[in-house]
Design brief:
Strand content: 15-25%
Distance between the termini: 36 Å
Radius of gyration: 19 Å
Oligomer: single chain
Helix content: 40-55%
Structural class: alpha/beta
Number of domains: 1
Strand order of the largest sheet: 1-9-8-2-5-3-4
Order of helices and strands: HHHHEHEHEHEHEEEHEEH
Shape: globular
Amino acid sequence: MEYALLRITAATLGPLGTRRAGAVGARLALLGYWPLRIRRAVVTRHLDACFPELSDAERRALVRATYEHLGRVGMESILLSRLGPESMHALFEGVDGRTIIDRARDEKQGLVLVAGHLGNWELSGAYLAALGLPVAAVAKRQLNPLADAFVTRTRRRLGMTVVYDDEAVRRLPRLLRDGYGIGLLSDQAGKGAATFVPFFGRPARTPRGAAVFALRFNAPMVFVLAARQPSGRYLLHLEEVEVARTGDLEADVDTTTARFTAVLERWVRRYPGQYLWAHRRWKRQPPDTPPELREP
């Protein structure tokens, strides 16, 4: 049924185009804001804690905006199944920091591409591939095999190589050596290796994988963000993250992870309505965390 819903949605709303279909997705997502109130309390607590300088009315508007944005991103991601690589250019206004990928592509240098659940993370990888950078997207296997195959086919047709997380240790080193940009979403820590770094002043459990690959294979780390603009199109932001290289691998991994997270926080502050606040980012914390810094 889940797979059928994906196919029906793509077939029904695809003719509208991504912008109008995205508007439909935004309206549907507002049902989660009200009357269903799906995770609304979580989103509200997070925004209250991270943006205390805003008025109550401003924060309520921001809560609503996050639901609308997630609806647009979800709809756009489904409709990618009907698009090809050449379609990506029409969805973007341009690239900020393009010289980073142009240099890497010309020199066949591998890159560690790190992103958070900010903007449209699916579009960012597809657009980089359309710009000529070979991209390997690290993905988790979905519980529904039909839905998983649907998403994987879409990513591959858009020019990306898909690497499942249980294959990453084996496959990513060679891809880096072959000049690929390996893309990792690095702001949600599951059962894998992680460390605690500050995010909006509170310790947040954060994946270490991106920093480990950058250090072990001497690869530049690049923050990637496809941010929605007032026009409805996206701007791709690329920013190199300084990798700590003191010789102490464990300390360097933690420092580099903290630096990436600081860059992510800076961009979240710029585009707060485009972040996935429904995720409980501070759910796991060190046992000695002071009460005032615990999960909101």
